[in-house]
Amino acid sequence: MRVVLVREGKRAQGFDVALVTTDVETSPAEAVARYAERWAIEVGLQEAKQVLGVGEARSRSEKAVLRTVPFGLLCQSLTVAWYALHGEAEQDVRRRCLSAPWYRQKRRPAFAGTLVALRREIMSAQYTQERPRRGGTAEITHPIPHSARPAA
Known about the structure:
Layout: E1 2-6, E2 17-21, H1 28-50, H2 62-86, H3 89-99, H4 111-127
Antiparallel strand pairs: 1-2
Helix pairs in contact: 2-4
């Protein structure tokens, strides 16, 4: 095994990260580069587990077990893609820094912040009243009484 201790160039003592690898053939620089490449994947998996609860479903059938985690990761990917296209990162970071003064160095929203923005958008769409479209299909403008609803 090899242990690689990494520190910022300006620090004179201590270290920031300790990497342990069983690949003793690679140089310490290669081990650090491999770690840096993998970091975004590890963060994404950790957020999927802790923020979205991926892997916590209580599925009983084999098919459900095999589908649950990929579906959760798909939901995470769709959330990130939606935020990249429609999110307002600067406003979200500014709002977070105002509500949490310890985030003064924050530059980008975390995944939890993108999820909050998506939930805010979904709720806004649900409760925003729009004018009916002209020339479109007929819309139900009043609730159907229980007596007229089909039995479940």
